[in-house]
């Protein structure tokens, strides 16, 4: 084998290793930090940024996310179903998403209804955006909760726990 060809082969192989994901690290899957996927860029790992400035709930690792955003002044809660990279909306047929939130030590049920959007053509039964409200969310920046059920295509996600860490704008 000629030296220049051997060098090119070794360089190409090394480049492929460096460009790919670096494998799981502490608190990360495949080099991705989903626990801190709220828009903060402090860990240095590949992170997914919530496009609306909310907190992300991973539904299926590297495939689906649910972004939650609370308006603490009004108690309004918005949610968006997003792809694995949090770059594209994912429309679902479901017309409501049910959450159970832990607010000040009490379990509170919150229903998010499908949001229609004339600009994108989204409508109930074919949307990625949901909204609801609860007075208990007024002034609350952090809480825990559970997504009771979200069905995306043939896949159903039930009992998905999350920590809402506040808005990240």
- CA radius of gyration: 20 Å
Q: Tell me the series of helices and strands, N- to C-terminal.
A: HEEEEEEEE
Low-confidence stretches: 4-44
Helical run tally? 1
Strand order of the largest sheet: 1-2-3-6-5-4-7-8
* CATH domain class of one domain: Mainly Beta
Report on the architecture of this protein:
With 169 residues, the chain is mainly β. The chain has a domain at 51-164: Sandwich (Immunoglobulin-like), CATH 2.60.40. Helices cover 10% and strands 38% of the residues. It has one helix and eight strands, in the order H-E-E-E-E-E-E-E-E. The protein has one helix spanning 3-19, and strands spanning 55-60, 64-71, 76-83, 96-103, 106-114, 129-133, 143-152, 155-164. The protein has an eight-stranded antiparallel β-sheet, with no helix packed on it.
List keywords for this structure.
169 residues; 10% helix; Immunoglobulin-like; mainly beta
Secondary structure layout plus pairing:
Blueprint: H1 3-19, E1 55-60, E2 64-71, E3 76-83, E4 96-103, E5 106-114, E6 129-133, E7 143-152, E8 155-164
Antiparallel strand pairs: 1-2, 2-3, 3-6, 4-5, 4-7, 5-6, 7-8
């Amino acid at each position: 084998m000629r030296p220049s060809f051997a060098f090119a082969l070794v360089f190409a192989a090394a480049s492929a290793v460096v460009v790919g994901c670096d494998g799981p690290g502490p608190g990360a899957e495949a080099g991705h930090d989903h626990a801190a996927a709220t828009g903060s860029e402090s860990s240095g790992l590949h992170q997914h940024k919530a496009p609306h400035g909310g907190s992300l709930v991973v539904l299926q690792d590297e495939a689906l996310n649910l972004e939650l955003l609370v308006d603490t002044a009004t108690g309004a809660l918005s949610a968006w179903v997003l792809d694995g990279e949090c770059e594209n909306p994912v429309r679902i047929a479901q017309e409501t998403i049910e959450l159970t939130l832990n607010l000040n030590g009490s379990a509170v049920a919150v229903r998010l209804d499908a949001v229609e959007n004339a600009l994108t053509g989204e409508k109930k039964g074919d949307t990625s955006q949901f909204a609801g409200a609860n007075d208990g969310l007024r002034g609350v920046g952090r809480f825990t909760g559970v997504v009771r059920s979200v069905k995306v295509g043939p896949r159903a996600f039930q009992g998905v726990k999350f920590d809402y860490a506040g808005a990240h704008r």
